């Protein structure tokens, strides 16, 4: 993936931090999901007083895209930190990795974890979810 594209995804994910709704944890997460069609879908984490109703930034982005008929993706950038201060990588939780497994090729889908445009790491979904259970298991 081109550095210019990575930079755009990092900027977009960081921009999402201001929309993060986190009155309980104050741990803010932003995501930028690049679809195969070139469109970027954004997400932030959205907490809830009934904790289990909380939604992660990554799933917010995926569900926005899927709800608009988009189901093919290239990469997602995730940033996060307490009070929105980025000091280390914030990796997707297990539930979000499973959602990625539903729509993405684990061999090629890229997960970009970033602190800023100079400090980031790129993983495949397979690296983050080895031996994942997906649609092919039910085919
Ligand atoms: Zn998650």
General description of the model:
The chain is of the alpha+beta class. The protein has one domain (3-138): Cytidine Deaminase, domain 2. It is 27% helix and 24% strand. The protein has four helices and five strands; from the N terminus they run H-E-E-H-E-H-E-E-H. The chain has helices spanning 3-16, 57-66, 94-103, 125-128, and strands at residues 27-35, 40-44, 73-82, 110-114, 120-124. A five-stranded mixed β-sheet has the order 2-1-3-4-5. Strand 3 (73-82), helix 3 (94-103) and strand 4 form a beta-alpha-beta unit. The model has no long low-confidence stretch (mean pLDDT 98). The structure holds zinc ion. Residues 56, 58-59, 92-93, 95-96 line the site of zinc ion (ZN). Zinc ion binds at residues 56, 58-59, 92-93, 95-96.
Question: Notable features of this structure?
Answer:
139 residues, alpha+beta, Cytidine Deaminase, domain 2, five-stranded mixed beta sheet, 4 helices, globular, binds zinc ion
Task: Summarize the entry for a quick read.
By secondary structure, this protein is of the alpha+beta class.
Helix content: 25-40%
In CATH terms, what is the fold-level topology?
Cytidine Deaminase, domain 2
| Domain tally | 1
Count of β-strands: 5
Alpha-beta content class: alpha+beta
What is the second-level CATH architecture? Answer: 3-Layer(aba) Sandwich
The major β-sheet equals: 5 strands, mixed
Strand line-up in the sheet with most strands: 2-1-3-4-5
CATH class: Alpha Beta
Cα-based radius of gyration, to the nearest Å? 14 Å
- Parts with pLDDT < 50 across at least 5 consecutive residues: none
